[in-house]
Structure prediction request, 465 residues.
Amino acid sequence: MKRGFLNGSKVKKEPLYPGSETSSGAAPPSSTNDSGAKGKGKEKEKEKPAPAFTKLAYGKVDKIGLPENYESPEYTRLETDPSKTDHPSDLLLMTTIPPRTYEGPDDPDGHSEWIVLGPTKAKVLNHPQYPKPVPKPIPAEGADGPAFEIRDTPDTAMSKGLFALRDIKVGQLIFAERPLLVSPRNIGLLGATYIPEGRSHDMNTIQAVAMYEWEKQLEVAVGRMSKENQKAFKELENNHKEDGSGPLLGIVRTNGFSIEEIYDGEERTDVNSYGAILKLGSRINHSCLPNVTYNFLVPSFSFQFFAQLDIKAGEQLFFSYCEIEQSKAERDAELAPYGIICNCPVCAHATPETDALRKEFKKRTRQYTVKIRQWISEYDSAAGAGAPEGAGSSKGRLNEDMLQPILKFREGLLGEGLKYTKEYKAIAWNLHLFYEKIGVYSKSKTFLEEHSEIEEATMRGASSL
Ligand SMILES: C[S@@+](CC[C@H](N)C(=O)[O-])C[C@H]1O[C@@H](n2cnc3c(N)ncnc32)[C@H](O)[C@@H]1O
Prediction:
């Protein structure tokens, strides 16, 4: 099964710049950059090396001015040969993927502007399956064009969103697209390094300089886009108009998807990964009952968006910006920096029981699986030992009443919109086995069919790639 599909994507929607949500904007440096300067007073603070990772608060932060007489460093990052892969390891490039040539036509699936370290670019271009075309949804019978449109939502706080134009079956690829822009999540790669000698290295200054310098880089990257993509980029929502972010950085901070698959170095960490801005995907709003999931494929350098539930024509498409295995209070806390107060159906009906179910459904699925398998195996051993059937026998002890907590758990999963998960699928399979064993064949068949339906939806998603 494709990673992330129908099981909560590994590509988590998260603020591009995770960090403090205080209003001071003085986000603490990451622990990797403290260099022992903690608690050693102002003098030591000044000597502290610039952090390798500048965290920006996602929520509202104070506008922080640039240091007095700040002079921007001179640097050029315009690349001459986009297909070159042997760049120095610390060179931050401004490139386009797939590479664009002066003479040749544009790639029919579009191009992404990409701010990237040389070796990371090489990793993608040298990927054994790169390049591949962007996957296309299978056209619906008798229907032309996309299965969705962008339009205003009835909720003014949400602004625009994506809405289905026709019924979409669970597992279907709804659309796939190359990002408009991919850039490092660590904007400290620029600004922090360039604070002039002798100037204060306090976090406010570092952050202000990093934001200023990053905006300039974004101006170059956005300026390299086609006119159509520039327009799409600049029309995206910007919730960072008053915190010192420039207009382009504000858009990046509001609309970023974190990409799990692209990172600098050997292992992905918080400080070396990349974020993407999408023309369509960045228009999808949040719900804790998501009907869409997505992933990123390196060979086609594209995001795929799949239906995670059956979607009816007219319904809005949603994915979850937060982890779904959390209580409502925890989800609220994770969403607060986006300024989102979630009113989705599962939030509106959250209870201590639904909170517990969300937090524990994976563990409980494992426990119930073990339990049903154990009952069946005890039954089989006793039957094998020739125990007579009837009351008191092993067969007599296998009865539907034993399933009550498991059937209630299953209802809970359905209520929370967790049907198309591998946990629900496992429960359906185990119930099928149990009912078959006790000879209640109609129910056994029902659960087998449910299992097959989920399996089929999964395969549909995987086969559309
Ligand atoms: C990536 S954008 C989503 C598309 C955006 N609505 C638009 O008009 O382009 C993220 C922003 O949309 C808004 N948003 C997304 N989901 C929301 C929700 N469930 N409730 C309220 N606002 C939401 C928030 O302002 C959030 O910062």
